[in-house]
Amino acid sequence: MITVLRKPVITEKATKVGNQGQYVFEVEPSANKVQIKAAIKQMFDVDVASVRTVRIKGKVKQRFTRRGLMVGKTNLRKKAYITLKPGQTIDIVSGEGGNEE
């Protein structure tokens, strides 16, 4: 169940929505919202209000080398925006969750 979550996303936008009680995680592309909600509840012991997901398609990358043009593609990614119920927090750095005190 915990293999659904890959890593927390720590970007400027993620910290901005973090002030509103939302957290962003990179998740397995095949995971659905029910699995993501259960994994967050099990890992951090918090109550999840809602889950929104975003699929990010892989980009085509190319570069010129001595052997000619090398073409490749980055992998598909999926992010989940987790909204917690009021009074709940997740400390991303230490990996602990719970009620605010």
Strand line-up of the largest beta sheet: 1-2-6-3
Strand content: over 45%
Shape: elongated
CATH topology: Alpha-Beta Plaits
Which series of helices and strands comes N to C? EHEHEEEEEE
Instruction: Specify Rg, calculated over alpha carbons.
Output: 17 Å
Number of helices: 2
Major sheet attributes: 4 strands, antiparallel
- Give the termini separation: 29 Å
**Total strands:** 8
Q: Strand pairing plus helix content: what structural class?
A: alpha+beta
* CATH hierarchy: architecture: 2-Layer Sandwich
Number of domains: 1
CATH class: Alpha Beta
How would you name the CATH homologous superfamily? Answer: RRM (RNA recognition motif) domain
How would you portray this structure in words?
The protein has 101 residues and is an alpha+beta fold. The protein has a single domain, classed as Alpha-Beta Plaits (2-Layer Sandwich). 19% of the residues lie in helices and 47% in strands. It has helices spanning 12-18, 33-44; strands at residues 5-8, 22-27, 48-56, 60-65, 68-73, 77-84, 88-91, 96-99. A four-stranded antiparallel β-sheet has the order 1-2-6-3, sandwiched between helices. The longest helix has 12 residues, at 33-44. The relative contact order is 0.24.
